[in-house]
Amino acid sequence: MADASRTSTAHVLIAADKFKGSLTAAEVAGHVTAGLRRAVPGLTVSAVPVADGGDGTTQAAVAAGFAPQRVQVTGPTGVPVTATFALRGDGTAVVEMAEASGLQHLPKGVFAPLTATTYGTGELLRAALDAGATSIVFGVGGSATTDGGAGMLAALGARFLDADGEPVAPGGGPLRDLATADLSGLDPRLAKTEIVLASDVDNPLTGPKGAPAVYGPQKGASEEDVATLDAALAHYAEVLARAVGPEAAEHALAPGAGAAGGIGFGALVGLDAVFRPGIDVMLDVLGFAPALAQATFVITGEGSLDAQTLHGKAPAGVAAAARAAGLDVVAVCGRLQLPQEALAAAGIRRAYALTDLEPDPARCMAEAGPLLERAAERLARDFLV
């Protein structure tokens, strides 16, 4: 690697994700910049706050210059919530399903594994279409739901009826009563809109690695609930296959179908979405490549650097792109749970954890900003002077 990256003539690019529960991606960049410049006054620093399609994706888009658009939609339990999507002048929108149907909209400690709905996500997508979006990056993750995207599709004009011809109730559980599905009423603007399903999850819809089994317990699902949801989603896929053709069954097995409680499946079948790893999509949308071309040194990071980081999370994507460009990459994080050899394999030379400065997790989260500045100052002295 170039020795120039260790001098005050360095051009540092900060491309870090949020520290969940403490700092947004933009705040992380601000604190890292402050710490770097304490050690190297006048250092050239640029920032591209990043996200991988999960919660925080809209914030990252707004930090990159997209305009925030706020709208009231139906929350996961039916209570109205205010959700934000991001829109750029060229008609590109970033829609984050967690804004409408995320766990953050549930009362603290209260889950609704069988009944939580993605209806509000469909309303959010429709709002993006109303605002003139012609290309939508649909970031999924952090959901409170396991309804296979049925609520989302219903909000966009699909009909899901029981044997009596009545709409099935919201949520994944009631899909066991689904008799017929009709997607002919879907908003016609969808057919003219490019929709990219952006996710770091490649699970299928059902089965041992499916949405209910892997992610249901995080949403309050008991073993019995997981079995109920898995059977209901399998039945839902069968009914959709009768309605739209065998491609629905193929989509149920496709990577990303199980993302965000199966909303990936609904997007693949009903929205004709194309699945791409979330970090790859977001790096394109956020303008990472031109920023990287100007950099001599890259800093990435997220709240917890752990085994999940290596499977499509933002720091892994940033490090891979920077390493391909021949640049050194270091990371900042709240806590580090990866050995040095795993970091090196991912293209990260070293990681600076806030818990090395403050072992108490509660204080670490409460004082994340000042601690991050101290970590960045140490990083600068190690690599940039």
From TrEMBL:
<dbReference type="InterPro" id="IPR018197">
    <property type="entry name" value="Glycerate_kinase_RE-like"/>
</dbReference>
<comment type="similarity">
    <text>Belongs to the glycerate kinase type-1 family.</text>
</comment>
<dbReference type="Pfam" id="PF02595">
    <property type="entry name" value="Gly_kinase"/>
</dbReference>
<keyword id="KW-0418">Kinase</keyword>
<dbReference type="InterPro" id="IPR036129">
    <property type="entry name" value="Glycerate_kinase_sf"/>
</dbReference>
<protein>
    <submittedName>
        <fullName>Glycerate 2-kinase</fullName>
        <ecNumber>2.7.1.165</ecNumber>
    </submittedName>
</protein>
<dbReference type="GO" id="GO:0043798">
    <property type="term" value="F:glycerate 2-kinase activity"/>
</dbReference>
<dbReference type="InterPro" id="IPR004381">
    <property type="entry name" value="Glycerate_kinase"/>
</dbReference>
<keyword id="KW-0808">Transferase</keyword>
<dbReference type="InterPro" id="IPR018193">
    <property type="entry name" value="Glyc_kinase_flavodox-like_fold"/>
</dbReference>
